[in-house]
Amino acid sequence: MLSLVVNDRTHQVSGETMGDILRLAVGQLNKGQVISRVIVDGKEQAKFTDEEFLSTLTGVTAEVRVECEQVKELILNGLEQEKRFLTELLKEMPAIALGFRKSEAAPAAEKLGVLAEGLKTLVQLLQGVASFFPQANASFRFRGEDLQTHLIRFSKTLEALNKAQTQVDFVMLADVLEYELSEELGRWVELLADLREVVRGSEEP
Fold first, then answer.
1. Angle 129-135-23 (CA atoms, 0-180°, nearest 5)?
2. Which of 38, 46, 177, 200 is the most buried (most CB within 10 A)?
């Protein structure tokens, strides 16, 4: 048995894995809430949605503390943070491209890793919008096109980026970053601002 704390209420529960415990936690959430933080014996688990954590055996764990947020507020904050992230990345894109043109690949490649993590967050946010605000997701248009169309275009740009990386073609990589990806990021900065307003005007799930 261990202590599971959800919404400041403590429950004595048992489960073989952390995934079992979090499934029990979900059953204690209030309407419109999602899990935002997980703290195990005083240590925050940044990747509590990863399979590695979920499959971890509870063992001698004494306490799992789960913090929650209203899903609407969480998504609104996430969209704003992602917009800021892409804005800052857009400013750095010429310097990253120049690094590859000069064959200074190490620092430039490090920035690509940051980009990859940011895009993973973007996908998770869009999945959240689709899941919790399906009507807003279905009706949303930016420059006359739906989200799926923008995602398809973005994925093609990322495929070109991946091809250049695989071929270790620094000139092609720099071109994709400086022109194609920069254009896409600029579009998505505006798109996320519009999407955030649509979600803000939607009813709580």
1. 45
2. 177
Q: To which residue do tokens 């999407």 refer?
A: 195
Q: Note whether 21 and 64 are within 8 A (CB).
A: yes
CB atoms within 10 A of CB 131: 13
Q: Are residues 46 and 82 in the same domain?
A: no
Say if strands 63-70 and 2-6 run parallel, antiparallel, or are unpaired: parallel
Helix residue ranges, H only, 42-104:
51-54, 71-101
d(CA 202, CA 72): 9
Is residue 140 situated within a structural domain?
yes
Chunked into runs of 10 residues, the chain (205 residues) has average pLDDT values of 96 97 96 94 95 96 96 94 94 90 80 83 89 91 92 90 88 91 94 95 86
pLDDT for residue 102: 85
183 plus 107 within the same structural domain:
yes
DSSP summary character for residue 180: I
pLDDT at 123: 86
Whether residue 32 contacts residue 71, with contact meaning beta carbons closer than 8 Å, is answered with yes
pLDDT at residue 114 in the model: 85
From CA 199, how far away is CA 192, in angstroms rounded?
Answer: 10
Same domain flag for 184 and 147 = yes
SS3 assignment, position 36: strand
Total domains present in the chain: 2
State whether 80 and 63 are in the same domain.
Answer: no
Strand 33-40 and strand 2-6: the pairing is: unpaired
